[in-house]
Amino acid sequence: MTTTSTRHGAASDAAGTGGLRLLDVSLTLGDGEAAVTALDHVALDVTPGEFVAVVGPSGSGKSSLLAVAGGLQRPTSGQVHLAGTELTALSDKERTAARRRHIGFVFQQSNLLASLTVREQLLLPLHIDGRLDAAARARAEELLEAVGLSHRRGHRPHQLSGGERQRAGLARALMTSPAVLLVDEPTSALDRVRSAEAVRLIAEQTHAHGTATVMVTHDTAIMDAADRVHEMVDGRLS
Ligand SMILES: Nc1ncnc2c1ncn2[C@@H]1O[C@H](COP(=O)(O)OP(=O)(O)OP(=O)(O)O)[C@@H](O)[C@H]1O
């Protein structure tokens, strides 16, 4: 792990090779006197197979960074390139399609569907895409094993602990081996051992599948697994 400044114009071009690139991205939230600069001229390149952690105090703009990088929120200015496509140049409909195709999100709240079992949550995105085959089922079993939920595969969200729900959300995001993985405090409901395991799994999958991964966290203990650590302060990334 190294702490570095943002690499503007680095030799590897994340935009050209399918990673994630933010170019001079700013985001203002609210109006008039209540306006807040959530992101202030942020530049970030994450190449395929690279695991970047972003740390910073509460309110520094970490969630805003993920929302803009993942196309959930349009920046006020600047560009976001994702898997070779300029996300900021797309219509809302195209942006939603690009997000579904290329991005995996892991939110603090796992956003699991109440009526589905853990195993079904993992299989659903592939079912929707018509890609639910034997390999997908085998990958689901592998990931359930990796997050320690094999014995809970038939449980529904209300039958799980907060930590188990969080691990199910992580396994679901990894199911499609997305080009870009955006992770918000993946370990807030996990104990130290489970946190280390979850972050190790994210690192391993990032490297194995050539994913460009950004993880925001308060937890300095889990940063060691990242290839690079950036700090966010008042909307600026360094
Ligand atoms: N809808 C909004 N209108 C105005 N300001 C907002 C809005 N949403 C967030 N903010 C402000 O934008 C800044 C960045 O918020 P953001 O949620 O990105 O920070 P964060 O680093 O993720 O915080 P935390 O670690 O507490 O989740 C904060 O100062 C926040 O108060």
TrEMBL record:
Keyword annotations from UniProtKB, A to Z: ATP-binding, Nucleotide-binding, Transport
InterPro entries assigned: AAA+_ATPase, ABC_transporter-like_ATP-bd, ABC_transporter-like_CS, ABC_transpr_LolD-like, MacB-like_ATP-bd, P-loop_NTPase
Matching Pfam families: ABC_tran
Record-annotated ABC transporter domain positions: 20-238
Residue ranges of coiled coil: none
Molecular functions (GO terms): ATP binding
Protein name according to UniProt: ABC transporter ATP-binding protein
Domain of life per record: Bacteria
